[in-house]
Amino acid sequence: MKEHTHLTRQRLALIMAALLLLTLVLLTISLCLGSTAYRPWQLWQSTPDAQMARDVVLQLRLPRSLAALVVGGLLAMAGLLQQILLRNPLADPYVLGTSGGASVGALAALLLGASSVLVSLSAGTGALASTLLVFALARHDHSSQQSRLLLTGIAVASFAGALSSLLLSIAPDGLLRGMVFWMLGDLAGAPWQVAGLVLLGLLILLWPCARDLNILSHGQQAAHALGSQTRQLQWLLYFASSIATAVAVTSAGLIGFIGLIVPHALRLVLGQDIRLLLPATVLGGGCTLLAADIVSRTVLAPQQLPVGVVTALAGVPVFLWLLQRRGRQQ
Predict the structure, then answer these.
(1) Which of 79, 251, 271, 282 is 20 to 30 Å from the Cα of 199, by its Cα?
(2) Nearest-5° angle of CA 12, CA 13, CA 15?
(3) How far apart are the first and last CA of the chain?
(4) Which secondary structure element, helix H or strand E, spans residue 9, and what is its range?
């Protein structure tokens, strides 16, 4: 047992070191590339462009890069927790309707001409409302909690999608582009500090539960037989994944495939141990979204693509490849 724990810690250290190195490499690339030719090393040069370089690198590129790392980590964590909760490796952060409520709140605020702060608050309120609605509708069914949660979440998400379409259909042309751009994902001006604190808090909350989550991933009956508090764990997973999804969507809009692909791909490589998957998924999600953001800012520079478009275009073929690989393994 001690030898197994030692090997797990060694693997975790190696994986985390590799992912941290990848994060630093991508962060350096992100600070160097953009629609302008300013580079980080110009910050310390005594040239007329030094101040402009500081503004571009430190005020624009660095906060956006940090936001990509944090939001990607939140989405990947939420996807992993949903996959454990629903015992479905193809579940994603948006399956239980949290993002739909956030979309309705944000689009309603944009339609009313609210400021960016009020848009974020409205998105958070909508996400909270949809989370509480799903919880209220699903909590009375004790016999099939997972299926009840899934079906209720799908129903709430469909209703929220219909409301979002209604808001888009009545929006004036002057606001429509901004509303669509928000729905496709936008990291510019994302409050990465708040999202980072939430991500850190969720990691601190979930890490002591990693052993019980490993047991729960094998089934509710097996977890109950081994003495785990399955119902408390399930609601912990639900609310933690809902909070992570709500903060990510509130910060950067709807960005798909990160929470679906990253946990699924890492599970194929690392196995089922949550002690490995949880930190690796957070870093992997951040790296994936940061790489997508680099592409969105450079492929058509100076024009920028919504980062959600990039993740969707890259995510579909990767997802299909992962499905084929999973089928061959089975």
Answers:
(1) 271
(2) 65
(3) 28
(4) helix 2-32
Q: Which pLDDT tens digit goes with each residue over 221-238? A: 555 544 555 677 878 888
pTM, rounded to two decimals:
0.86
Stretches where the chain sits below pLDDT 70 are: 1-8, 37, 41-49, 139-146, 217-230, 325-330
Of 159, 90, 160, residue with least CA distance to 125: 160
Helix, strand, coil % in the chain, rounded to nearest 5: 80, 0, 20
Question: Who contacts 251 (Cβ-Cβ below 8 Å, separation ≥6)?
Answer: 67, 70, 71, 120, 190, 191, 192, 194, 195
Indicate the Cα dihedral angle 84, 106, 292, 316, nearest 10°: 60
The residue among 196, 242, 294 whose CA lies nearest residue 79 is 242
CATH architecture label of 2-329: Orthogonal Bundle (1.10)
Residues 243, 93: Cα–Cα separation, whole Å = 10
The structure tokens 């956006």 sit at 64
The C-alpha atoms of residue 7 and residue 51 are separated, in whole angstroms, by: 49
Residue 38: name the closest of 50, 22, 47 by CA: 50
Q: Residue 37 has which token pair?
A: 């030719």
Q: Both tokens of residue 308?
A: 């959600």
Which amino acid would we find at residue 185?
Answer: G
Contact between 57 and 44 (Cβ < 8 Å): no
